[in-house]
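To: structure subgroup
Subject: Chain for Friday's discussion

All,

I'm putting the inputs and outputs inline so they're searchable in the archive.
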Amino acid sequence: MMKGMLYRCLVSLLVVAVNVPAQLAASDSVTLGVFAYRPDNVINERYQPLADYLTLETGMAVNLKVFNQDDMNRALAANQIDFFLTNPSHFLVIRSERSLTGALATLRRSWQGKTTGSIGGVIITRAERDDINRLQDLEKKSIATPGLTYLGGYQAQALELASVDVDVRRHNRMVFLGNHDRVIRSVLAGDTDVGFIRTGIYEELLSENPNLADELKIINPQQLRGYPFVLSTRLYPEWPLVSLPHVDSRTVRRVASALFALEPEHAAAQAAGLAGFSPPADYQSVEMLSRSLRMPPYDQVPRVTWVDILHQYRNWVITVAVL
């Protein structure tokens, strides 16, 4: 009997010994999802060095996955992502659907020696379009945009146009193209009159094709001292990096520590055009923008019931009843 008990104990120990390394390996691997605001191959090339840097600094395998917004939403719903980078408007939508504690960090971009933690929108048209020179000229023009939930590719511009009584959703033909590169190609080809892109895209493509400076012009240019990119709108906080609730606190601390230690001179930062990461910004201005435009997650008009009406006007109702 003693031999049988000893045998069972040895078998149990062997099972534990075999399974522990596998469990550790699983917990030491995380997935970083990055929103593909440009073609997938471009984003992969730029952010793989960041994943490699995080792998080295944290001691965990950090696997990079690049998604469009719909695919990222599905991956989040299936808990296939542990950390993600996306634009602030998309972050608000995700936050409304999931139990997120907030952003872990906000990225800072770098361009020609200048850095910024702010994002905005750019309005472009072909240089020869003499009929399009100011915001009011966009009335009834066709507009190419990556999509409605792009902060720098639609929402920032829509708010500026609303301020001069141009409602792009009612008065314009909107063409949704999925990324910023397609927007620029559409404008250059004459398929659309105007394009909405986020800050930084124009400079990136201009470095690849200097002729763009003669082919495109910027509508409503803003002159902000120290800001490295052309701009047509007000500014908002840059992309947040967010951890999901299922990630344990130790893993979150390791990743956060590595992010904040990333220097602008590091190859991983330079590959992605980053100056590093800062503590999370206040995204209230993005929330106010989405509310003003009635964009998700603030696109539903609150339902008003008789109870709400009675509560709001109870003093008036009581007075009338007494009379």
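Points worth raising on Friday:
The mean pLDDT is 88.
The chain is about 45% helix and 20% strand.

D.
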